[in-house]
């Protein structure tokens, strides 16, 4: 793969044979981001899980203590909680008419929150929403009667995590412009969450390796802590 001069220059700051403590890794992530925009910082966790087994298909959500730095456009689909949704400043609120708009190709939103009575209608467009990761689920807190809390959590910095076919989980930590302590708080929150959802079937090391990176930046290996 051909690398740009910019990438090659910043990559020299990272020794890819070393595993760095999280503080140093985050410091390097900031230093190796030379883009003109405020790049996203991500963490990747390689887990010793087999997603083919239902009990090892890890999926959930977490509200990051320092937020994500991203603005999420929230669509609430409901017939029973429209007033609450509007008072909570959802970007879009409606019922079946919103589902019809989606069927016609409208996707000017990032998250859907739905109340339970609308799920049978949403199920009809599950093949459209599912591949985009937009289908609401109770497990992720996006199917709920408490739409106010659901909206508030998203505004605070709620992110979803899901293990892929190779056993990896990729999660946003924030933006390069964040204070390093905020990025660290988000990282530790994710790490502790993964510890809590460790499948009982896992034998041996649960986390194989961890790395963090910024958009178009080099990967930085992170020292594992708190796990066997």
From TrEMBL:
CDD domains: Ribosomal_L1 (cd00403). The keyword S-adenosyl-L-methionine does not apply. The gene is rplA. Pfam families: Ribosomal_L1 (PF00687). Binds directly to 23S rRNA. The L1 stalk is quite mobile in the ribosome, and is involved in E site tRNA release. Part of the 50S ribosomal subunit. Keywords: Repressor, Ribonucleoprotein, Ribosomal protein, RNA-binding, rRNA-binding, Translation regulation, tRNA-binding. Belongs to the universal ribosomal protein uL1 family. Signal peptide: none annotated. PROSITE patterns: RIBOSOMAL_L1. SUPFAM superfamilies: Ribosomal protein L1. HAMAP family: Ribosomal_uL1_B. GO terms for cellular component: ribosome. It comes from Spiroplasma ixodetis. This is Large ribosomal subunit protein uL1. The lineage of its organism: Bacteria, Bacillati, Mycoplasmatota, Mollicutes, Entomoplasmatales.
């Amino acid at each position: 793969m051909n690398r740009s001069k910019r990438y090659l220059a910043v990559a020299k700051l990272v020794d890819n044979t070393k595993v760095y403590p999280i503080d140093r890794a985050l410091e390097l992530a900031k230093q190796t981001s030379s883009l003109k925009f405020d790049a996203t910082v991500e963490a990747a966790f390689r887990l010793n899980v087999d997603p083919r087994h239902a009990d090892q298909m890890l999926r959930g959500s977490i509200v990051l203590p320092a937020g994500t730095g991203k603005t999420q456009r929230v669509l609430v689909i409901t017939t029973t909680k429209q007033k609450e949704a509007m008072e909570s400043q959802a970007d879009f609120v409606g019922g079946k008419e919103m589902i019809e708009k989606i069927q016609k190709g409208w996707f000017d939103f990032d998250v859907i929150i739905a109340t339970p009575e609308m799920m049978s209608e949403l199920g009809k467009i599950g093949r459209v929403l599912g591949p985009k990761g937009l289908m609401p689920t109770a497990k992720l807190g996006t199917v709920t009667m408490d739409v106010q809390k659901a909206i508030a959590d998203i505004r605070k910095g709620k992110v979803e995590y899901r293990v892929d076919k190779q056993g990896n989980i990729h999660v946003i930590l924030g933006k390069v412009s964040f204070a390093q302590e905020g990025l660290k708080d988000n990282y530790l929150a994710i790490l502790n969450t993964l510890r809590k959802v460790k499948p009982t079937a896992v034998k041996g090391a649960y986390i194989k390796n961890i790395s963090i990176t910024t958009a178009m930046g080099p990967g930085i290996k992170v020292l594992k802590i708190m796990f066997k």
